[in-house]
Amino acid sequence: MSEPQILHAYHLEQAPRRVLLFAPPLYDVRFPWSEWHQPASLLQLATALRWRGCDLRLVDALSPTTEGVLPKRLVRKFTRGEYSVNYWRWGQPTKALQKALDDLKQEGWYPEDIYLLSGLPCHWQGSYEAISLARQVFPAARALLYGDYPTLVPVHALETSGADVLIVGPIQETVSLPLDLSLYAAQVSTSKCSMLGQKIRI
CB under 8 Å to 9, separation ≥6 — which residues? Predict the structure, then answer.
């Protein structure tokens, strides 16, 4: 892999590619409306890529289980004097994400690009985890990180995230596009993580 890049004016390629869309888990003390969260920007990107003929897959770490629950795990507890705050990891367990990626590899599908949507800078740990997992399974793929994290603190993202490309600002081709909700259509899967690693259904 070449040295990571920070791009301030990124444009999507026109040629069809195999693309994995990855919404990372979230590390924070609270996550309001977690059961209804969807990565809107990532789903707009899916629409733009589908119009270019790309072969897409989705791994959404923040999609609820089939029971409608978003798992969370206590990472640590912050204590200051008499006050204590829990710090959580929200999202599908790491082993479930690993299995979703391994299943794609087992079916013979290898992405050329992996787009990861980051949250706020304080959520950097989820981006790092997702890129590390994807890198283990698909080492030849190009990891592109975009969203608030690389936009607001690009130097930290460059040094910490492990991404090959850091996109600063919005991807212009996705602005105002509809969300490709068909990425979630394959919930008929018998897998416990039925919303992970699903192929687009047009």
Answer: 169
Going from the C-alpha of 10 to that of each of 90, 154, 161, 174, the distances in angstroms are 30, 14, 18, 11
Bridge partners for 6 per DSSP: 166
Per residue in 46-104, pLDDT tens?
A: 999 999 999 999 999 998 877 778 889 999 888 888 888 999 999 999 999 999 999 99
Cα 112 from chain centre: 15
What per-residue confidence (pLDDT) applies to 199?
A: 37
Residue with tokens 């789903």: 43
Q: Which residue has the tokens 């997702």?
A: 130
For residue 12, give the 3-state DSSP assignment: coil
Residues 6+ apart with CB under 8 A from 145: 116, 118, 127, 131, 157, 161, 163, 165, 166, 167
Spell out the domains of the chain, with CATH numbers in brackets: 5-199 (3.40.50.280)
Per the DSSP assignment, residues forming a β-bridge with 118 are 147
